[in-house]
Write a structure and sequence with these properties.
With 333 residues, the chain is mainly β. It has helices at 7-13, 21-28, 33-45, and strands at 51-52, 58-59, 93-99, 107-114, 116-123, 129-135, 141-146, 151-156, 158-159, 162-163, 168-176, 179-186, 195-201, 206-215, 223-229, 235-241, 244-250, 257-262, 266-272, 278-283, 287-292, 299-305, 315-320, 326-332. Helix 1 (7-13) runs parallel beside helix 3 (33-45). The protein contains three helices and 24 strands. The strands form six sheets. It has a six-stranded mixed sheet with strand order 10-9-14-13-12-11, with no helix packed on it. The protein has a four-stranded antiparallel sheet with strand order 4-3-24-23. It has a four-stranded antiparallel sheet with strand order 5-6-7-8, with no helix packed on it. A hairpin with a 5-residue loop joins strand 23 and strand 24.
């Protein structure tokens, strides 16, 4: 909805030393950069700990067997919630609501929530538009309600009865029947035990875990899931892998298999266009839209957003809210 990307984080963990800081930061700064950079530094430096491989994946010590996959999605209590003080993180991002009738042009963009990042919107069965986001001031995934003229933060989500659980970021919300399903990056900021997990809710705030969607323990640095059901009934997930997008597929919408990499940009969002085609939004010097009739071959459409309503060139984390004319993204301050 990332989340699993600023220049400092990429230099430490992904080796993009040759990239220009402004160009990379313009679209790949995420609310977890300093925490992940610190985690990566500790993993590399600490004697006896795992080391970072060429792909960015952390190789665990043979003396420390990995946890069972089922435990990767276990909700955990956060012992010390508080603000995220990363200067490139969610404290310095803002949620923007805009309108889009066709999914490739936006208007009436307005900032509605400061100190917030990684937004993703969904239309609930009762007609409410719920926007999930990472709260930089209070920590954790929160939800707010939005209309064409109003915005109201509601509060943190809970998973399996645990409010504001530890290590859950990058929410992506979508409807499955009358319920809201949430795909998210779990076990952030850890490297060796991360996963994309699924949870489901009837009211949009209290979720129960469905299980593991993608095991990321040997997949490298992957974040920011986005999920849609294709017209043929199968499911497609897009994930961010640095400045690229990784696709994963599923027949049941619960367990996904990682597949090809697209080099258009990172921090992706999937949507179904009015004619049934798949639209892929990525962050690449703005928010850019691509289109596919078969979810295999992609054609560039156009740049959808170039800068925020405050003039900021940091625009990312797009979300086209299905069933509405609402388009959500984040901007920098």
């Amino acid at each position: 909805m990332t989340g699993r990307r600023n220049w400092y984080y990429q230099t430490l963990t992904l080796g993009f030393v040759g990239d220009s800081p402004p160009a990379t930061a313009a679209f790949l700064r995420r609310p977890r950069a300093i925490a992940m950079a610190l985690a990566a530094t500790l993993v590399v430096a600490a004697p006896g700990c795992g080391r970072s491989g060429a792909s960015g994946a952390v190789i665990t010590s043979p003396s420390s067997p990995p946890p069972p996959s089922g435990s990767l999605c276990t909700a955990r209590v956060n012992p010390a919630p508080g603000p995220v003080l990363d200067p490139n993180g969610p404290m310095f991002h803002q949620i923007v609501l805009a309108r889009s009738s066709d999914g490739i042009s936006v208007s009436d963009a307005r900032i509605v929530q400061p100190a917030a990042s990684v937004p993703d919107g969904v239309r609930a069965a009762d007609g409410r538009v719920l926007v999930y986001y990472v709260n930089g001031a209070q920590h954790g995934v929160w939800v707010g309600t939005a209309t064409a003229g109003s915005w109201s933060p509601v509060g943190p989500i809970s998973v399996d009865g645990i409010p504001d659980p530890l290590g859950i970021v990058d929410p992506d919300a979508y409807r499955v029947g009358d319920r809201i399903r949430l795909a998210y990056l779990s076990n952030f900021p850890g490297q060796s035990q991360r996963a994309i997990c699924l949870a489901e809710s009837e009211d949009g705030r209290s979720f129960r875990t469905l299980g593991l969607a993608v095991d990321l323990r040997s997949a490298g640095t992957i974040t920011d899931p986005s999920v849609v059901q294709l017209p043929n009934g199968s499911w497609l997930m897009a994930l961010s892998a640095g400045q690229t997008t990784r696709l994963a597929r599923s027949t049941d919408g619960l367990s996904f298999t990682l597949g090809e990499t697209l080099t258009f940009g990172g921090v992706p969002e999937l949507a179904i266009a009015e004619d049934g085609a798949v639209r892929l939004y990525v962050c690449a010097a703005g928010i850019v839209a691509y289109r596919s009739s078969d979810a295999v071959s992609w054609q560039r459409e156009q740049t959808v957003v170039t800068r925020g309503p405050n003039g900021s060139m940091l625009v990312c984390d797009p979300s086209r809210v299905a069933g509405t004319d609402m388009f959500v993204f984040k901007t920098g301050m």
